[in-house]
Write a structure and sequence with these properties.
Keywords: ATP-binding, Nucleotide-binding. By secondary structure, this protein is α/β, with parallel strands linked by helices. It has two domains: 145 residues, Rossmann fold, CATH 3.40.50; 69 residues, no CATH class. 27% of the residues lie in helices and 19% in strands. Strands 3, 6, 7, 8, 9, 10 and 11 form a seven-stranded mixed sheet that branches. Strand 4 and strand 5 form a beta hairpin. Helix 3 crosses helix 4 and helix 3 packs parallel to helix 5. The radius of gyration is 19 Å and the shape is globular. The two termini are 13 Å apart. The structure holds adenosine-5'-triphosphate. The site of adenosine-5'-triphosphate has 10 residues, from helix 1.
C-alpha cells in the first residue's frame, strides 16, 4: 500500500525530523497537502502539466526523498521515521523508470538489466535467460552487448524499462516511460506494465500520453502546481476521448496493433512468482 498523508515537499529544506529547530525555510512548497491512498496491486496514472510536481511525487514514492511535512508510507514503511538501512532495503523492492534513464554508462545493455538480479543474489545461469528474454521482448535482442552511448534514446529507454521490471518489484514507478518511444513500442510497454500489474505489482505511471490512458482506463491522480485536483485526488475516469467517453464502465477496446494475447510480456509467464522481499 502507498499512503500520502498531508504531504508537503520544499526543495532545499531539511526533511522532517532530520534536525532540531527546522523552521521550514522561505521557498514555496513544491508539493502541498497531498493526501491519498493507493491500494496494493493498483494501477494509477499520474497526470499534470509540466512543473506540477509529478517527478517529485514519484521520488517520494521511490523513497529517494523524504517529505518536509506529513507522512509517506510505502509498502508498509513510514518513510519519515525509517532508518537509512531500512530505506535501502525498501528501495530494492521498488522499480523505477526515470525520465533521463540513468543507465550505468560503463555497463552493457545486458549488464544494466541484470544489475537488480545480481544485487538480489540470483545465479548467473538463471538470470542469463531471464535478461535475454526480456531484452528480446523489448526488441533489443541484437543489442545486448551495446553500451548506453551506442544506443538511441528510445533504445536506452527500453533498457531502463527492462531494468526496472526485471526483478518484478512490489512497486513500479515510471516517469514518462514512453517519452522516446514510437507508438508501437509505447503499446508494447503498456502491455508489459499491465502484465506486471496483473501479477501483483502496484504501478504508478506519470505521462502526457493520452493514448495510453484511453487504452488502459485506470484511476488518475491529477496534480496542478503541487496540489491534487479533483475529489481526494483520485478520479475514477481517465481523460475523455475526443468524441467518446471511455470511462471505467466502458473500457477502450484494444485497437489494431495492440499485442495479441499470445504476445504476453515475460513477467506473465513466470510461474510461482513472488515479489522481491515479499
Ligand atoms: N532538485 C530540485 N531542486 C529544486 N527545485 C526542484 C528540484 N526538482 C524539481 N524542482 C522544482 O519542483 C517543481 C516540480 O518539478 P517536477 O519535476 O516534480 O515537475 P513535473 O510535473 O514532473 O514536470 P515535468 O512534466 O516537466 O517533468 C518545479 O518547479 C521544479 O523546478
Amino acid at each position: 500500500m502507498l499512503r500520502f498523508t498531508g504531504v508537503g515537499l520544499r526543495y532545499g529544506a531539511p526533511a522532517r525530523g532530520s534536525g532540531p529547530g527546522f523552521a521550514g525555510g522561505a521557498a514555496p512548497e513544491t508539493l502541498r497537502d497531498l493526501t491519498f491512498t493507493l491500494s496494493e496491486g493498483s494501477f494509477t496514472w499520474l497526470l499534470g502539466p509540466s512543473g506540477a510536481g509529478k517527478t517529485s511525487v514519484l521520488r517520494l514514492m521511490q523513497c529517494v526523498l523524504r517529505p518536509t511535512r506529513g507522512e509517506v508510507e510505502v509498502l508498509g514503511v513510514a518513510v519519515s521515521r525509517a532508518r537509512r538501512r531500512d530505506l535501502a532495503l525498501l528501495r530494492r523492492r521498488i522499480g523505477a523508470v526515470h525520465q533521463d534513464f540513468r543507465l550505468l554508462p560503463h555497463l552493457s545493455a545486458f549488464d544494466n538489466v541484470a544489475l537488480p538480479l545480481r544485487l538480489a543474489g540470483r545465479s548467473e545461469s538463471v538470470l542469463r535467460a531471464e535478461v535475454a528474454e526480456l531484452l528480446a521482448w523489448v526488441g533489443l535482442a541484437g543489442k545486448q552487448h551495446a553500451l548506453p552511448a551506442e544506443l538511441s534514446g528510445g533504445e536506452q529507454q527500453r533498457v531502463a524499462i527492462a531494468r526496472a521490471v526485471i526483478a518484478r518489484p512490489a512497486l513500479l514507478v515510471a516517469d514518462e516511460p514512453t517519452g522516446n518511444l514510437d507508438a508501437a513500442q509505447a503499446r508494447r510497454l503498456l502491455a508489459l506494465l499491465i502484465e506486471l500489474n496483473r501479477i501483483g505489482t502496484t504501478v504508478v505511471v506519470a505521462t502526457h500520453n493520452e493514448e495510453l490512458l484511453l487504452r488502459h482506463p485506470a484511476p488518475v491522480l491529477r496534480l496542478e502546481a503541487g496540489r491534487l485536483v479533483g475529489a481526494a485526488g483520485a478520479e475514477p475516469r481517465p481523460a475523455e476521448a475526443p468524441g467518446g467517453e471511455p470511462g471505467r464502465d466502458a473500457p477502450a477496446p484494444a485497437p489494431a496493433g495492440a499485442p495479441p494475447d499470445d504476445a504476453r510480456a515475460p513477467a506473465a509467464r513466470v510461474s510461482g512468482f513472488r515479489h522481491a522481499g515479499a
